[in-house]
Amino acid sequence: MVFLCLQWYNLGPQYAALSVGTILTYVGFTFATTKWRTKFRVAMNQADNKAQAHCIDSLINYETVKYFNNEQFEADNYSKILANYQNASLKSSQSLSALNFGQKVIFSASMAVMMSWVATGVLAGKFSHQFVFHFVFISSLFGREFDSG
Length: 149
Fold this sequence. Notes:
about 0% strand; mainly alpha; ABC transporter transmembrane region fold
């Protein structure tokens, strides 16, 4: 909030409005994408649990598997379960990459617009040190968001 007041005072209301719009877009995109990608994470966790349960069950029933000569059957079954886990893990990773990419695009587009506005103001003689002020504050504002996801 303090940053927005400083931005309004030093640069003008359009800069503060763009910052608020960027924050709202960033938060909205993050919530929507996280809600969408939750199903991939749940599927990955379920596939992991199934793989672990099958592995433990096979080890506990080692003698029965060995007695009925079902080693190949158990190995093939476990390979299918692991393939399902790998597929679910890949989807989870890809959806996380989409989230991170979208967040970076939102931030970068906002920074490009704001920096072009400030650069235009500097060239027109309207601003002097505000370019550095703005860049440092907006970078620190969004830097923390990228660290926390």
